[in-house]
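User: Modeling request: complex.
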Amino acid sequence: MKVTVTINGAERSAECEPRTLLVDFIRTRLGLTGTHIGCDTTSCGACTVLLDGRPVKSCTLLAPMADGHALTTVEGLAKGGALSPVQDGFHQEHGLQCGFCTPGMMLVATALLERNPDPSEDDIRWAISGNICRCTGYMNIVKAIQHAAAAQRATAVVPEPEQVAAGASA
Amino acid sequence: MYPAAFDYVAPASLDETLGILAERGDEAKVMAGGQSLIPLMKLRLAAPSVVVDLGRLDELQFMSADGGTLRIGARARHADIESSAELRRACALLHDAVRLISDPLVRNMGTAAGSICHADPQGDWGSVMLALGASFVLRSTAGERIVDSAAFFTGPFSTVMRADEVMTEIRIPAPPPGSGGSYHKLERKIGDFATVGVAVAIELRDGVIGRAGIGLTAVAPTNIRATAAERALTGQAPSDALIAEAAQLAAQAGEPRGDIRGSAEYKRDVVRVYVQRGLRAALRQAREVSA
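Assistant: Request completed. Predicted assembly structure:
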C-alpha cells in the first residue's frame, strides 16, 4: 500500500506492506537513518519521532497509521544549517556520550519546550522518562534541556510595549 | 521483530467499521492506539488476518463531564485524559492513575478503551473502572449494549465482547461531592507492568462511607474488585481500625502468583499497604471537597 507523510516539512510517499513498522519506513523507505532502533519493544525510546508534534515510539506504530500525518525526525531539527536550541544545548552541556539515544532525547525535549517553555527539573525528568540512556548520562541530558529552555526563552519574541501596556500578562 | 502479514483497513466511519466486523470479525483485531496490540503482533502472540484501525474515527475522539456521567470516547488517548482539567476536576482518580500508565510516549498513542479491551490482568485501567463502577458501551451492527465493568472481564486477555463488537465509549458515574479516589502502583521502573496496583474510590455521606470501590491490578487472572473489603467499609465511619480491616480483607481477595516481580506473599502485603494508603488519600480528598 502507499503511505504518504509530511516529514520535516516535505511530503513523501512510499509503497510498503501494512505490517511495516514506522521506524523501518522512515529509515529504509525514506532513507532517514537518524531515527534509531534500540530495543524494538517499546521500552527505550531510541526510535522516538514526533507525530503531529507529539513524541511517540516509532517501533510501535505501523507505517499506515502515520498516513496523512506530520512527522518530525532528528533531521528536521536544524534550520538552515543552524542547530536548534535543543541541539545546541546538547552540544554545550555535553548531553551525549555514545549518542544512540540522542535523537529521541532531543525530540522529546523539543516537544516539551514547545508546550512548556520554562520546565522544572521534574518536568524535564517526566518528559524523558520513556527514553533510556544506556550510558546513564541523564544529569547532562537534563542540563542540556535546561540550557535549551533558557536559550529559547532569551530569544523569545518580546511583546511590543503597547501590548504590554494593554495588559498582556504573559 | 515483524508481525505476520495482515490486511489493514482504517474505516472513515463507525458504521463502516461495524460493517467490516460483521463480515470479518472472527479474523480481525480492532486497534485504537496499538500500544498493546502491536507488541503482541510483533511477538506473534497475536496474528489477526485483518487489523481494523480506529485511527480515523474522529467521532470517537471525545471526553466530557457534563451532568451525572463522565464519558470517554474510544479514541481518547491516555495523554488526553492526563491533560483534561475537566476530567481531573470531576474525578481525581482518573488523573492519579493515568500518570502511572506506561510512559509519556506510549500515553501519546495508547487509549483507555483499547487498554480495557486488551484486558491484561496487569493493566491499570480495568481496576480503576471497577473501583468507579464504570460501564462500557459496545456497538455492533446488531445494536448497542452497555456492560458493567464488574461483568466485563472473563479471564486473562478475555472479555465478554463479541468479535463483531467495538467498545465506543467508557461511562463513569460522576463521583458526587464528598468523593475521593487514588491509584497506587508498584512498578520496577517507568513503563514496566504493575507488580501490584490498587485503585480506591470512596464517597462520604454525613461522615459515613456511602460507597466504596476497590480495584486490584496484577493479583488475579483479571483485574478484580475487592468486594469483601468494599462491604466492610460501606455504611461505616472511617477509622484506623476500619482501614486496617479493609486492607487485610483486600489482601486476601486476589490469588497473586510469585514471579520475577515478587513472591505471592509480598504482593499480598503490598496490596494491604496500598489499600491503607489509598483509603487515607481518598478520605483526605473527600473531606477537602466536602469542607
